[in-house]
Design brief:
Layout: H1 5-18, H2 22-33, H3 37-40, H4 46-59, H5 62-75, H6 80-91, E1 95-102, H7 111-125, E2 131-135, E3 141-147, H8 148-159, E4 165-166, E5 169-175, E6 181-184, E7 189-195, H9 204-218, E8 224-228, E9 234-239, H10 241-253, E10 258-259, E11 262-268, E12 274-277, H11 282-294, H12 298-313, H13 331-344, H14 351-364, H15 368-378, E13 382-383, E14 389-390, H16 398-403, H17 425-439
Antiparallel strand pairs: 1-3, 1-5, 2-3, 4-5, 5-6, 7-9, 7-11, 8-9, 10-11, 11-12, 13-14
Helix pairs in contact: 1-4, 2-5, 5-6, 11-12, 11-13, 13-17, 14-15, 14-17
C-alpha cells in the first residue's frame, strides 16, 4: 500500500497525542490488532515504536491499515486528531484513475521530479493515496490514481484558476478515466468577426454590447476586444479556443446570423484564413447595391460592391482578390455594377469611368508606376492630401467625393493579398481589361 510521508507523519502525531505511554500502545495493539507490539517494534522510545508500527501495518495492506486507524479511534473515541486522520483516510479508499497533462514531455521529466510533483499534489489535495500509475513515453500525460474526492477538488481548483501549476510545471489539461477532457488551460487566441456595418468610436456602446452578448452566447468569460481597424467592419477578438469553435459551429449551421443588431458577414481565424462567409445570392446583393445607391448610402454601397466582386470571382475561403480572380467575374455582373454606379451618381462614379481615367493615365505616362500615380491623383486616392502617399481604404470619404464631383472616386477596388486596406491600382487595370472584353 502506497502512502505519502506527510500522511504518515500526521498519523504518527495523532498516535503520539492519543497514546501517552508504551504500555498504553501495547495494550491497544493487543486488543485491537491481536498482535504483540514488542514483536513488531523494538526499543524504548514511544515515537520510534509508533513509527515502526505504522510501517509494519502499512506493509500488510489496506485492510490492516484501515483496522489500525479505525481501532485507534474506537480505543480513543474523543481524540480529534485521530478522527481527522480517519476522516481523511476513508475519503481516499475509493480510487479512480485520471490524467494530468503538463507543459513538459515525460522524456524531459526525471523520475525524482515526478515523485516530488505527486507528493506536492498529494499534500495540496489532502489525498494520502494519490500515486503515479504510469507516464507514457514521450508524452506530457501523467496517469494518476487517487481518490474521487481529490479528483473533484483538483477539477474545481483548475476551473477557478486557483491552481495553474504544480512543482513549477504548468497544468495544461485534466482528463477523467474515460479520456474525456474535464479541464483545458486557457490559451488566448485571436480571431476576427466581420460585421455588416463599420465600427468607430461613436459606436462604442454597440461594440460593448456585441462583446457582452457574444461572451454570454459562447460561454467564454475570457472574450474581449483586441482591436478595431479604423472605419472597418472587422472586430478583432481574443478569447478561448472552445469559444471560437462554438462560434464557428453556430455560424456554419446557420443558428447564428446576427449579434446585437449587426449582421455577421464572415469569420476569420488568427492567421486571416476565412472560416465562414455569409452566403447571399449575388442577385440579392446586386439588388441591395441598387437600393443603397438609390439612397445615396455611398460607403455601404462601396463595401457591397467589393463583396459582389469577391463573391463573383469565387476565391475559395478568401476575402481578397488576386489578379487571376478577375477573369472569373462574369460580364453580366460587371456591367450591372458599372451601370448602377453611373446611373445613381450622374456618371461621376463607376468602373467604366475609372477605366477611362486609367487608360488616359497610361497614355500620358512613360511607365506603369507613373501611370498609377497619375491615375491616383486624378481620382484623389493619391496626392497632396497624403503628401504624395496613397490613401488607405478606410480613409476614403464618399460624401466628400460626391460633393466635389471627383470622377472615378468610387467604387474603391476590393482588398488584395498585399494588404487588405491598401488601394492597389492593378485591380483597376485588371477590371478595365475585363470590361474591354465585355464591351467588345
Amino acid at each position: 500500500m502506497e502512502l505519502h510521508g506527510w500522511f504518515e507523519e500526521q498519523l504518527q502525531q495523532a498516535f503520539l497525542d492519543a497514546f501517552l505511554s508504551s504500555m498504553e500502545l501495547q495494550q491497544f495493539v493487543r486488543f485491537k490488532l491481536n498482535q504483540n507490539l514488542n514483536a513488531i517494534a523494538g526499543g524504548n522510545d514511544l515515537s520510534d515504536k509508533i513509527f515502526q508500527l505504522i510501517r509494519w501495518v502499512k506493509s500488510r495492506g489496506q485492510a490492516q491499515f484501515t483496522k489500525l486507524i479505525d481501532g485507534a479511534c474506537e480505543y480513543n473515541p474523543g481524540n480529534e486528531n485521530l478522527q481527522a486522520v480517519q476522516q481523511l483516510f476513508h475519503k481516499t479508499i475509493n480510487k479512480i484513475q485520471y490524467i494530468l497533462v503538463l507543459s513538459i514531455s515525460a522524456n524531459n521529466f526525471p523520475t525524482d521530479q515526478a515523485e516530488d510533483l505527486i507528493d506536492d499534489l498529494s499534500k495540496l489535495l489532502k489525498d494520502p493515496c494519490l500515486n503515479l500509475n504510469n507516464i507514457e513515453s514521450g508524452s506530457t500525460r501523467l496517469n494518476l490514481i487517487g481518490s474521487e474526492e481529490s479528483f473533484k477538488q483538483l477539477q474545481a481548483r483548475l476551473n477557478s484558476e486557483e491552481l495553474t501549476e504544480i512543482s513549477g510545471y504548468s497544468i495544461e489539461a485534466l482528463e477523467d478515466n474515460f479520456g474525456q477532457t474535464i479541464f483545458r488551460r486557457f490559451i488566448p487566441i485571436q480571431y476576427t468577426l466581420v460585421l455588416s456595418d463599420s465600427l468607430d468610436k461613436n459606436k462604442e456602446p454597440q461594440i460593448e454590447a456585441i462583446i457582452q452578448d457574444l461572451s454570454q452566447l459562447l460561454g467564454d468569460k475570457h472574450l474581449k476586444r483586441k482591436s478595431i481597424e479604423p472605419g472597418s467592419t472587422k472586430l478583432i477578438l481574443e478569447g478561448s479556443q472552445e469559444g471560437f469553435e462554438k462560434l464557428q459551429t453556430l455560424l456554419i449551421s446557420g443558428n447564428l446570423l446576427e449579434i446585437s443588431g449587426f449582421d455577421i458577414e464572415a469569420l476569420d481565424d488568427a492567421y486571416g484564413k476565412r472560416i465562414f462567409i455569409k452566403t447571399i445570392p449575388i442577385k440579392e446583393r446586386i439588388e441591395n447595391l441598387r437600393q443603397l445607391l438609390e439612397k445615396h448610402e455611398w460607403e455601404e454601397a462601396d463595401r457591397e460592391t467589393s463583396n459582389i466582386l469577391i463573391q463573383a470571382a469565387r476565391p475559395e475561403n478568401r476575402d481578397w482578390l488576386q489578379e487571376e480572380d478577375i477573369q472569373n467575374i462574369s460580364c453580366d455582373i460587371l456591367l450591372k455594377i458599372d451601370k448602377l454606379w453611373r446611373e445613381h451618381s450622374d456618371d461621376c462614379f463607376g468602373l467604366s469611368i475609372q477605366k477611362g481615367i486609367w487608360e488616359e493615365a497610361k497614355q500620358q505616362s512613360t511607365d506603369n508606376f507613373s501611370a498609377e500615380k497619375e491615375f491616383g491623383k486624378q481620382v484623389h486616392w493619391y496626392g497632396e492630401e497624403k503628401r504624395d502617399q496613397w490613401l488607405w481604404r478606410f480613409e476614403i470619404n464618399p460624401l466628400w467625393g460626391i460633393n466635389q464631383r471627383i470622377k472615378g472616386y468610387l467604387p474603391t477596388p476590393p482588398p488584395t493579398r498585399e494588404h487588405k486596406d491598401a488601394i492597389k491600382v492593378w485591380v483597376i487595370d485588371a477590371l478595365a481589361q475585363k470590361l474591354s472584353e465585355c464591351e467588345a
